[in-house]
Specification:
By secondary structure, the chain is α/β, with parallel strands linked by helices. It contains 10 helices and 7 strands. The protein folds into 2 domains: 157 residues, 3-Layer(aba) Sandwich (Alpha/beta knot), CATH 3.40.1280; 71 residues, Helicase, Ruva Protein, domain 3 (Orthogonal Bundle).
Length: 250
């Protein structure tokens, strides 16, 4: 059964290749979407090539609603978007994928049923299909090469849906196996270790420039946010260099 999460239905209108239907299913499931409707697929349905391409999203294909025509696919919808890369001469609001999915989220939250239509791979939706939509989604692409395949268009729209409805983290740092960030005390101890060792090695020369050199060194450390493992490694590097010097540099 489809999930209970409120979401738009993605309607694939007369898709031509099973592989592209599978790619669309995979793209939808990447972003938690599982309401697929398929209108008059060229190569019939079910399609084993679609299953092979879906790569783990086969459930969407099993539960996809097969429709004879566009009116059947849209019969329960209150607001419909049509995706197209070309100007069609039809007077309708035109949205970017981002703005369209923001509007879709608002309408769905208000209890409406929203659908997004995607056209056949070769030429996209026909004007008579677009005429049934309330608005158009136009992807800002290179005008010299505006061709997007079905899976790509579904992926872009699905991503924008996730941005509008999910908790998208726009920047983070993966500490991996390095553990926690180093504390101020730990960094300070590292700074002191290096200053003492470099002072003994005569690095801070001439004497009148020693204070500014130490300030610059401290500034360098502050620009490098380190984990505790990083601090331990830097201590180890300096200890090994001192041992090597004490052994005569052999």
């Amino acid at each position: 059964m489809p999930s209970e999460t409120p979401q738009p239905a993605f309607v694939l209108v007369r898709p031509q290749m099973g592989e592209n239907i599978g790619a669309a299913a995979r793209a939808m499931w990447n972003f938690g979407l599982d309401r697929m409707r398929i209108v008059a697929p060229r190569d019939g349905w079910p399609n084993p090539k679609a299953v092979a391409m879906s790569s783990g999203a086969g459930r969407l294909l099993d539960e996809a609603q097969l429709c004879a025509d566009v009116p059947e696919a849209l019969e329960d919808c209150t607001y419909v978007f049509a995706t197209t890369a070309r100007q069609r001469g039809l007077t309708k609001p035109v949205y970017s994928p981002e703005a369209a999915m923001k509007l879709a989220a608002e309408k769905i939250a208000a209890g409406e049923k929203v659908a997004v239509m995607f056209g056949p791979e070769r030429a996209g939706l026909e004007n008579e299909d677009i005429a049934k939509a309330n608005a158009i989604i136009s992807v800002p692409v290179n005008p010299l090469y505006a061709s997007l395949n079905l899976g790509q268009c579904v992926l872009l729209t699905g991503y924008e849906w996730m941005r509008q409805t999910g908790d998208v983290v726009h920047e983070t740092t993966d500490l991996g196996r390095k553990g926690d960030w180093a504390t101020g005390v730990e960094v300070e101890k590292l700074v002191e270790h290096y200053e003492e060792s470099l002072d003994e090695a005569g690095f801070f020369f001439p004497p009148e420039k020693a204070d500014s050199m130490k300030t610059n060194l401290r500034n360098l450390w502050s620009r490098m946010r380190m984990t505790r493992a990083d601090v331990q490694m830097m201590h180890g590097i300096m200890r090994q260099m001192v041992r090597w010097k004490d052994r005569g540099g052999e």
